[in-house]
Amino acid sequence: MSQEPNVVDAAIIGAGFSGLYAIKRLRDAGFSVQAFEAGDGIGGTWYWNHYPGARVDLECWDYSYSFSPELQDEWDWSHRYPTAQELMRYLEHVADRFKLREHIQFNTRVDAAEFIEAENLWLLRTSDGKTLKARFVVPATGGLSVPKPPEIPGIETFAGEAYHTGRWPRQEPAYEGKRIGVIGTGSSGVQVIHTLAGKCKHLTVFQRTAVFVVPAKNHPLTPEMRQRVRATYAERRNLSRITRFGIPAPMPTESALEATPEERQAKFENAWVNSQLLGFRQCFGDILSNAEANELVAEFIRGKIREIVKDPATAQKLLPYGFPFGTKRPCLSDNYYSVYNRDDVSLVDLKSTPIVRIVPEGIETTEGLIELDMLIYATGYDALTGALTHIDVRGVGGRKLNDKWTDGAKAYLGLMTAGFPNLFTVTGPGSPGPLANMSMGIEQHVDWITQCMEYLRDHGIARIDADPAAEDAWMQHVQEVVSRTLYEKANSWYRGANVPGKPQLFLPYLGGHGNYRRKCDDVAAAGYQGFALTRRARAGQPVADLAGSAA
């Protein structure tokens, strides 16, 4: 006789920033939790993405947990932008400090999740052949955790070493004396390139799309720097919760077109010298809504590239065109462009010199063979939805999540998708996600989910589901907001354009972290408006549906 699966209140998938915080919040609220992690350690995105040069692109003061003042005060960040390795040490410290590991089963993937309607429970099947039932499922699977392999013939024939930045080996490879090729120049590619230049015999960069790279201005932190931030941490966090990007960055309203050329030049120079991810966004209020204003920034950065790169032909290849500045995530690096001044670094522009195939000896292009000992694929991710759609998720009536999302992912507030009750997504489609501070967004999501589960428990409600009309209205609002910007002029991973066959729909909410937080709070205060609530049946009584009105 088969053993009946254990039942927990919440099954959490993933043990990164969101998974760890979900464990803590739900456990502290009195819920039984079981988390599953595919890797053998915690870290989530940073566990998988620890390639050479991997760093976060938000300052450490903001890209960290805010729920514990004691945690903020006791952890000493070493640099303005921590490496993946330091972020993993931080998360390990969090897991140990709050005793979270005991709730995590490592080396275990969730292969399938099926909603059992008669029981209002989810049945999970894991890679170790076991099953578990949970009243709620919280996929904390991350937005950049499923690598996207390149679509190049002959990949399997390469005789040398080959790695994807999103699945970097735990044992660091040796680079000295090797001819290394890097395919891709997004954030991960830029970081790999500027890190490995000079550490190998020769580095060949295969550029698919030239990108905007602004200075990182990364630096070690002194005790005095840490103390200054700690003295204002509470104010900094409170401001971050109401701002557009979830960080204490004021956004201007004046137009770049109303400023004089001298005023624009001064602001752009300041943004370059005192650089940060949003530095150029903070110059003027219409950088991402007015094409003419955007082009002023784009041409300023192109001018910097021409100044830095000595060979005019190489500089020309590195100039980004074809999409507005900021509509693809800008990259940070203090020396990316200068590496192309080295004799041991070559640039292959794939628009003018396409790859024909990968062969055992290296890469064959339209201009001949480039021999390589190592290939690094910095080709991106099946972002935002990939991790969840790789699980066989089946909701009401056995409907597959992948079937529902055939024409594009849909979710109400990025928190639930209709037809899949009691399944909460963290920073899911329709939430600000990667267009705001992810750590702040994660805390907001998990706090909201926890409070919702407490409400359901306290009011005897067995099931919550997104109302389809509310979901449709919200996703329409998401598209309306982005239509007022320049984001739709770029084939970015924000809209799934990097994955062949993936429906192209802009998924993050551009209305801002602060506005989004207020919307979620208002929905909860109105008795979970836009959600359908089903009360737990008492003996001899029918189940009662408490349908929330559509937003």
From TrEMBL:
It comes from Alicycliphilus denitrificans. Pfam families: Pyr_redox_3. SUPFAM superfamilies: FAD/NAD(P)-binding domain. This is NAD(P)/FAD-dependent oxidoreductase. The keyword Flavoprotein applies. GO terms for molecular function: monooxygenase activity. Keywords: FAD, Flavoprotein, Monooxygenase, NADP, Oxidoreductase. Gene3D superfamilies: FAD/NAD(P)-binding domain. Its cofactor is FAD. The keyword Membrane does not apply. Belongs to the FAD-binding monooxygenase family. It comes from the Bacteria.
